[in-house]
Specification:
This protein has 442 residues and is mainly α. The chain has one domain. The protein contains 15 helices and no strands. The radius of gyration is 21 Å and the shape is globular. The relative contact order is 0.14.
């Protein structure tokens, strides 16, 4: 029994670490864009980046929904020795990913201006926002298909390959960010082209692995499209809501902040939000990294293993949240100095306050995100979706509408911590119910 527990712990640490480092690789290139745009182009361009960044959440959310939904179903079916069905799931996921990539690319071709206005760009930053937005949309296929392949490769017992693909792609993005923005002076177009490089490089590595080394990721003609698509959407919808809601929250915050503090407030929020995306990516990566282990344990009815994984995850994410908040509070002035290249005192003041208030959300957020991933990994789509909807839509929208009316920018920064705390109460209720019953009864 002790040997089994050690093996479980080792697999948990390995999966979680690879998932975290892989997602850090994906998110770091957004942070690199933030830094290079701030220092190489200016604060207005930084505001443009933050206006356009919800499109990143949308594309990543689509990819994660299909990837995690499909890969979860794939792993459960293989654990039950239904190998042909697992191949059909892989094929169906690729079909969905290709179709949605085409739709998003066409939006970039024909509706970039309308999308830019919808996101709230004013005349001062309209053109730079449109350039970034349209470029990312035109290369939608890289974002969507990369997330799909990362999930399947990870569940094909190769989390290291998945992690390397994301890290190598992000390193390429950082190098190209510097080259395009500084020596070549390509402005926002250069930043956008560098951004699409990261998923393109990662996808190339994933496809190479799939074609040359994978023995389980095989194409098989699916017999029932609609039913299988429904399963994929259902199991992956929590991941989609989590990632898409990050973009939605940024959009709502931008529209609120521009009324209170103008574009300089949006730029300050851009720094806070893009750093937050990195922290969120850590939690998402952890959930993704341990998902194959959870799904396998569920498929083989190992209830005690599931409960151990759940306890480890709750304690670990809470500790990470406390440490992150402490570091953010202590080093907020230094963080803002890095990104405030023009030395604007208003931007610095707003950003420091934002980090010290907003970052309190991370204490609760890690549990909320990873528990949503846990429930999805054991085919309990309803709790996973409810958690994601609570924190991503149903609570955050009224908070953004109400709190800033009373407390201006303080209310803006406070909205997310309040939402995560309320969501945690619901999550703890689900966990209590989970522990009081067997997995099958639940």
């Amino acid at each position: 029994m002790n040997k089994k527990r050690k093996n479980l712990r080792r697999e948990y640490i390995k999966g979680g670490a690879f998932g975290i480092f892989g997602m850090l690789g994906i998110s770091v290139y957004i942070l690199a864009d933030t830094y290079f745009i701030a220092t190489g182009i200016g604060n207005e361009a930084l505001a443009s980046l933050n206006i356009a960044i919800p499109i990143y959440g949308l594309l990543t959310g689509i990819g994660l929904m299909l990837g995690i939904g499909g890969a979860t179903r794939f792993t459960i079916l293989r654990a039950k020795k239904k190998y042909d069905d697992s191949k059909k799931v892989f094929t169906n996921t690729l079909i969905l990913g290709g179709g949605l990539s085409i739709i998003m690319t066409l939006i970039g071709v024909f509706f970039a201006e309308e999308f830019t206005r919808l996101l709230g760009a004013d005349e001062a930053i309209f053109q730079t926002t449109k350039i970034y937005l349209q470029t990312v949309l035109l290369f939608s296929v890289f974002f969507i298909m990369n997330n799909i392949f990362v999930a399947f490769v990870r569940n094909d017992n190769n989390p290291k390959i998945a992690m390397l693909g994301m890290i190598i792609g992000s390193f390429g993005n950082i190098v190209l960010d510097y080259i395009f923005i500084f020596p070549l002076q390509m402005g926002m177009l250069g930043a956008a082209l560098a951004t699409v490089t990261a998923p393109a490089v990662g996808l190339s590595l994933m496809v190479y692995y799939w074609l040359r080394h994978s023995k389980t990721l095989k194409i098989k003609r699916p017999t029932v499209f609609i039913k299988e698509w429904g399963e994929i959407f259902s199991l992956g919808s929590s991941a989609f809501i989590t990632d898409f809601s990050n973009g939605l929250v940024i959009l709502l915050f931008n529209l609120t902040i521009v009324r209170i503090s103008g574009n300089i407030g949006v730029a300050a929020y851009g720094v806070v939000a893009n750093i937050a995306l990195v922290i969120v990516a850590v939690y998402i990566g952890m959930g993704q990294g341990i998902q194959p282990l959870i799904s396998e344990s569920f498929g083989k009815n190992r209830e005690e293993d599931l409960k151990r994984i759940l306890r480890w995850t709750v304690f670990l994410t809470f500790g990470m949240g406390v440490i992150t908040y402490g570091l953010g509070f202590a080093f907020a002035p230094g963080i803002m100095e890095i990104f405030n290249s023009e030395g604007d005192p208003t931007m610095s003041r707003l950003g420091i306050a934002g980090i010290r208030i907003y970052f309190a959300a991370f204490i609760f957020m890690g549990i909320n995100i990873t528990m949503g991933a846990f429930f999805a990994a054991v085919s309990l789509a309803k709790p996973a979706i409810r958690i994601s909807l609570l924190r991503g839509i149903f609570l955050i929208i009224p908070m953004i509408l109400i709190l800033p009316r009373w407390m201006d920018m303080f209310g803006v920064w406070l909205a997310v911590p309040v939402v995560e705390l309320i969501t945690l109460i619901f999550v703890l209720g689900y966990l209590r119910y989970f522990f009081s019953r067997t997995m099958i009864k639940y």
